[in-house]
Write a structure and sequence with these properties.
Helix content: 40-55%
Strand content: 25-35%
Largest sheet: 6 strands, mixed
Length: 184
Amino acid sequence: ALKPGEISGIVESTYGYHLIPIQDEMLSHREVELVGEVTPETVNTLIRQLRYLQRQDPEGPITMYINSPGGSVDSGMALYDVMQAVSCPIRTVCVGLAASMAALLFVSGTERDMLPHSRLMIHDPLILQTGGSALKLKAVSDDLMETRQIIAKVIADHSGKSMEEILAKTASDSYFRAEEAVEF
């Protein structure tokens, strides 16, 4: 059952009354949202929506609203790849926080907007698991350093900054208020 804040309207048909979920109404206006953590589930939903909207109108712009602390690098990079592959321009709008992987997705929009009190945070990828043999730790470390380079290159390519500038900023958590992010 839909909760009151999830309903955009009620439609009458020959089968009776039907509640229209807000997400369906947004999709009909070519709007999607990344809210919460970047996970395989949230990303798969967005990938399906982007592919559907491309099929509906290959040139029509899509707006993606982002309010996310980030999350899975692998899932985020899958969404990034699809965002780059679809023929539709994707405008990204930060409506709160775009941190970590969500910041990379925000920056990759063909047009980017931030609400006045929104924030952006970029940093190097984090290691979530430690332990194991020295060889395992080295393999994890090597993979992490490669991922760091890939993420920095994507951000550099979309921001016009050099790799060195991005790597310096991502060495620690770098927060930007909306006007600071636009300036950067």
